[in-house]
Amino acid sequence: MSSDARVLPTLNADGTRVRVRPRVVRGRFFDRRRIVAYGLLVAFLALPWIHINGRPAMMMDLGTREFALFGAIFRPTDTLSLLFFGLSLAFGIVLITTLWGRLWCGWACPQTVWLEWVFRPIERLIEGNPSQQRAIDAQPGISGRRLLKHAIFVGLAFVVANTFLMYFVGTERITHWVTQSPSNHPVGFGVVVVVTGLMFFDFAYFREQTCTFACPYGRMQSVMLDRQSLIVAYDPKRGEPRGKPAKKSLPVIEDKRGDCVDCGACVQVCPTGIDIRKGLQMECIGCAQCVDACDGVMTKLERPIGLIRYTSGAELAGEPRKLFRARTMIYPALFAVAFTGLMVTLGARQNADAWLERTSNPYEMLSDGEVSSPVQLRVENRTDGPRVYTLTYQDAAGVKPMGLQPTYKLAAHQARQIAFVVLSPRGSFSEGKRHAALHVADDDGWSVTLPVLVLGPQHDDHDDHERGHDGAHEGEHR
């Protein structure tokens, strides 16, 4: 079936898969991307093992619900910090896309880096060039070369999967899962097997389909790009009409053909199978492989390079590129506000945090006529070392709490829930409530006093089971 009948570059009209077997062409962008890719691969493999202040350099711990990022620790209670971090990330992505298009996809995305610089080079080493790979595709059954390739891919997928999981469960747990018997941790073993299978499926089979179908970024770029954004594009004014170059031995009176000789090199090297000469397409990841291929052909023909190049829609239309425009002023301003908010909230964080949590039962009437009012406190140690916290309950009615210890020791980064009750005479409440305070202090100078609203029955309430459920203990402190 001809390529014109394709619905997508990698799909025929009947839904069959068009396997992309890109040819490798070395050039200035290829060499630069290779340096970036290998640096990112080293960083990806090393970061889980690097610790800053006793914590991994980058880890989203699902067990403790903590996010470590180069020494900064984010917890679910860091509402403002997490908000500003998310906004900074979102505005940063939009700004980068507005200025430089899909530079992330072609140069730094893990999908591209692992596929183009690890899995496909191994595939070419074992199966040969694209023509030889297609010959293996056409063979019935599975050849020995392909079996060898898949065996190596499974091992690589195992490495990628375990490294990926380290960012969520830590190196110690992954090492335990890998080195111990699966019967000792069936859930962990199952997670490793499933993620390894997904990685193998992605890099051995699905490949560029991930960028086309699974990743939303390609579709989002249509609303983030404008005519001034940097893209990889073909210059039709210079390249059209296409045609083979005239032989130098033949006299040429007038040659109206453009510089594009229709060699197809740009299509042969594209990792997503598109023809860049058809204009900007969702599948283009901005990797510049077509730029290197076309520049090589132009150099051989002694023509200027840049028929395919990094440019913008405005420049292709003969207009100057404007770096300063509404988007490039609004997005940096929003990013600056969000990032400043992140830095301020991180700098304002104290060594500990304590707050009162709501309880399901505001109070309970006891048989001896006393009122039992529960109090639920949560204390969080934000430091890198253990701390001892002293708790002092202060009540104007002179009542004492039950079950409250004077001191509590918390390990580094530990959060603890402390529950106790206040037994009060029924007559100590005014309109069903009484004000108290809870003083929390650590052994390093941090302290806070939390107002406690102790709830009880109304004076005219004769039914012990009719209770005002207006809320539990208030006065949360962040």
Quote the distance from N terminus to C terminus.
65 Å
What would you call the shape?
elongated
How many β-strand stretches? Answer: 16
Unreliable sequence segments: 461-478
- Strand composition percent: 15-25%
The largest sheet is: 5 strands, antiparallel
What is the SS-derived class? alpha+beta
Number of spatially distinct domains: 3
Helix content: 25-40%
Computed CA radius of gyration, to the nearest angstrom: 32 Å
pLDDT averaged over residues = 87
The number of helical segments is 15
Which features characterize this protein?
single chain; 3 domains; elongated; Immunoglobulin-like; alpha+beta; 18% strand; 40% helix; 478 residues; four-stranded antiparallel sheet
Describe the structure.
This protein has 478 residues and is an alpha+beta fold. The chain folds into 3 domains: 15-223, no CATH class; 230-316, no CATH class; 352-455, Sandwich (Immunoglobulin-like), CATH 2.60.40.10. The chain has helices at residues 28-46, 79-100, 103-107, 110-127, 130-138, 144-169, 171-179, 186-206, 208-214, 217-224, 236-239, 265-268, 289-300, 313-316, 326-348, and strands spanning 51-52, 55-56, 58-61, 66-69, 72-74, 231-234, 308-311, 352-357, 364-365, 371-381, 387-395, 401-402, 407-410, 415-424, 433-442, 447-455. Strands 8, 9, 10, 12 and 14 form a 5-stranded antiparallel β-sheet that branches. A 4-stranded antiparallel β-sheet has the order 13-11-15-16, with no helix packed on it. Helix 1 packs across helix 4 (110-127) and helix 2 runs antiparallel to helix 15. The termini are far apart. Mean pLDDT is 87; it is low at 461-478.
